[in-house]
């Protein structure tokens, strides 16, 4: 019994050991297979046209793979360590290998931790034989597939596939019934391809007459190929390279539209022209066109009815006509030019498109509005009016001339600016630079200006520019500074009046005279021609202040000039003069306004009066002695009055006393 138990135990143990080994082996196998699929060689160039040869590694998984432990070898040794790279899911890593691959044949190994995970050989005896030609690559088709092939168009770091035709460079046309439908590929429509297959549906029903493929020319273009009189809603194309590899299907909707002119534009932005012009019009279509013509007989019967336009781009053409003659250019005439075109599929623009131009050979009119006679600012606006009956005014230019004295003016100059609307800003300081640029010095700033407006219409006609004898349209004086303060301001006084004098101020329009004994008041406004003034409204014995202000024609006021002066007293008592015997002293009365007065003297100095004998009283006699006689006369007068009053009272008292008794 014990032996049976031992047998059973050993049997179970053995079974467990065997089972474990089997499971372990399967696990290791699955791990190995998984490792083999984790990264793989996808494409390589061993004989580059330029630069280094390279190897492309592909990660077919849905997770990223770190390159630690991964290496690329050729038939001899390691050529690239991938430890510094991380390859994302479904991504490519192309690494240069410094021309380590042999042009004629070699082997490429992808190893991880020393174990070979993937390999490919090329050249004699290799899986890819012969070796790829210069500039070609070898790779899996498609990515990660076991099938290896050649590519005439290497896809370094990208998915391995044959390039499809460029849809933007292919025109498929379905003409009206009775005509042949065509397909046409423009230059570079199919780069590095040999042939194109053409189908009417995704089921790949061949549309090419007799079957087969369409040849692709060296420049990448193909066709046109007639595909019969059919109305296909959709066309499908497949490109085939020189190794027979096919591109993905390209879907193209049929072209059944005729070309239509989308926009017209003229070189002058406006459709107006004058004699001597060449009509220039640019037309843009909704698609590429192969020809555009214009009927110019509407302009001149001697011109062509099918005038060919110059091609600017695939969908844009330009018309430049011969020069318009005076006879053909009739004022106000509207000309409708007919344009016709054909697209690259030969669809005609049967109805054509028209563009209207208008002839205008009359210059516009313009004039500046009047300005104030004087302006006190350096910058101001000039208003104008301008009109043109046919095309309308496009812009105006400002012309101006300058004079410092209002008599002698400079030549006319222009700032050469185009002003589309009124008003025009004018700056007298900027005018200085414009005059200088025209060789005219010392012009601009304050002074007299004449202005003239020249207008240009949308056809290019301009009104006449001003000349030497042109009459200005507007003028003004620009005066931004005050006149100088009057110089030489002086005053003299005589008994009962004050005389003021000054030197004239050049740019003064008038003067104001102010007087003050306490506060200044205006006493006179005088013209610029007057240089003196007599003030008779004064009080003898008082001192006055005077000021004079010069005002120019625009109202600028100068600084005031000031002076102070005393007016002599009413009269002076002069004592007896010994110059002539028997001649009593004479009291000189002040001269009446009608009498002749002595000439005025300088301020603060009054000449002594003259006696009848002609002797001039000295200052000491006139002032000192006269001042001493005044109290004597007063006291004497009082004494006489007192004595008279006393005598009168005594006489009255004596009389009344006698009568009483």
TrEMBL record:
PROSITE patterns: FN3
Any matching Pfam family: LTD
Membrane-spanning parts: 7-27, 629-652
Gene3D superfamilies according to UniProt: Immunoglobulins (2.60.40.10)
Boundaries of every Fibronectin type-III domain copy: 482-570
The entry's keywords: Membrane, Transmembrane, Transmembrane helix
InterPro entries per UniProt: FN3_dom, FN3_sf, Ig-like_fold, Lamin_tail_dom
Name used for this protein in its record: Fibronectin type-III domain-containing protein
Lineage: Bacteria, Bacteria division CPR3
């Amino acid at each position: 019994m014990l032996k049976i138990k031992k047998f059973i135990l050993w049997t179970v143990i053995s079974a467990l050991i065997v089972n474990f080994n089997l499971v372990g082996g399967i696990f290791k196998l699955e791990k190995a297979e998984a490792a083999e699929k984790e990264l793989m060689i996808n494409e390589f160039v061993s004989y580059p046209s330029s630069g280094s040869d390279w190897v492309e590694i592909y990660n077919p998984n849905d997770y990223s793979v770190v390159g630690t432990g991964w290496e690329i070898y050729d038939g001899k040794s390691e050529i690239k360590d991938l430890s510094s790279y991380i390859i994302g899911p479904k991504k490519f890593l192309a690494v240069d290998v410094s021309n380590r691959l042999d042009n004629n044949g070699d082997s490429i190994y992808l190893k991880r931790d020393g174990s070979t995970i993937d390999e490919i050989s090329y050249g004699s005896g290799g899986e890819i034989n012969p070796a790829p030609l210069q500039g070609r690559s070898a790779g899996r088709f498609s990515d990660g597939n076991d099938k290896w092939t050649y590519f005439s168009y290497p896809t370094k770091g990208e998915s391995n596939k044959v390039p499809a035709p460029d849809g933007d460079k292919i025109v498929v046309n379905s003409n009206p019934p009775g005509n042949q439908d065509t397909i046409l590929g423009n230059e570079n429509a199919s780069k590095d391809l040999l042939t194109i297959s053409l189908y009417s549906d995704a089921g790949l029903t061949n549309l090419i007459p007799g079957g087969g493929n369409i040849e692709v020319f060296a420049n990448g273009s193909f066709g046109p190929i007639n595909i019969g009189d059919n109305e296909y809603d959709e066309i499908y194309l497949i490109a085939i390279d020189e190794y027979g590899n096919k591109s993905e299907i390209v879907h193209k909707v049929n072209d059944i539209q005729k070309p239509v002119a989308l926009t017209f534009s003229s070189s002058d932005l406006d459709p107006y022209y004058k004699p001597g012009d060449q009509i220039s019009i640019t037309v843009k279509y909704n698609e590429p066109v192969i020809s555009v013509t214009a009927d110019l007989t509407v302009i001149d019967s001697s011109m062509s009815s099918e005038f060919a336009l110059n091609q600017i781009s695939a969908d844009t053409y330009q018309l430049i006509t011969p020069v318009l003659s005076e006879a053909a250019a009739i004022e106000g005439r509207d000309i409708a030019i007919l344009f016709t075109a054909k697209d690259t599929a030969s669809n005609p623009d049967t109805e054509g498109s028209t563009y209207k131009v208008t002839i205008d050979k009359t210059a516009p009119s313009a004039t500046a509005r009047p300005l104030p006679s004087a302006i006190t600012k350096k910058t101001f606006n000039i208003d104008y009016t301008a009109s043109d009956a046919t095309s309308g005014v496009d812009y105006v230019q400002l012309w101006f001339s300058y004079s410092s004295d209002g008599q002698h003016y400079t030549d006319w100059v222009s700032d050469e600016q185009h002003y589309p609307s009124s008003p025009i800003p004018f700056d007298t300081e900027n005018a200085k630079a414009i005059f200088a640029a025209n060789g005219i010095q010392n012009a601009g700033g304050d002074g007299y200006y004449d202005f003239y407006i020249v207008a240009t219409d949308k056809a290019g006609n301009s009104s006449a520019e001003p000349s030497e004898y042109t009459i200005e349209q507007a003028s003004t004086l620009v005066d931004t500074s005050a006149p100088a303060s009057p110089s030489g301001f002086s005053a003299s006084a005589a008994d009962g009046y004050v005389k003021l004098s000054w030197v004239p101020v050049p740019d003064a329009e008038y003067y104001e005279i102010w007087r003050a004994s306490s506060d200044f008041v205006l006493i006179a406004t005088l013209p610029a021609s007057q240089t003196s003034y007599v003030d008779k409204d004064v009080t003898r014995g008082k001192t006055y202040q005077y000021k004079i202000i010069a005002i120019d024609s625009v109202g600028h006021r100068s600084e005031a000039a000031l002076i102070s002066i005393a007016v002599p007293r009413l009269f002076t008592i002069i004592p007896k003069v010994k110059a002539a015997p028997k001649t009593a002293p004479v009291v000189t009365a002040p001269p009446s306004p009608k009498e002749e007065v002595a000439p005025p003297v300088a301020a603060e100095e009054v000449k002594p009066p003259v006696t009848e004998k002609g002797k001039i009283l000295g200052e000491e006699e006139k002032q000192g002695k006269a001042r001493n006689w005044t109290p004597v006369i007063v006291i004497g007068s009082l004494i006489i009055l007192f004595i008279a009053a006393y005598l009168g009272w005594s006489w009255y008292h004596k009389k009344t006393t006698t009568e009483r008794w």
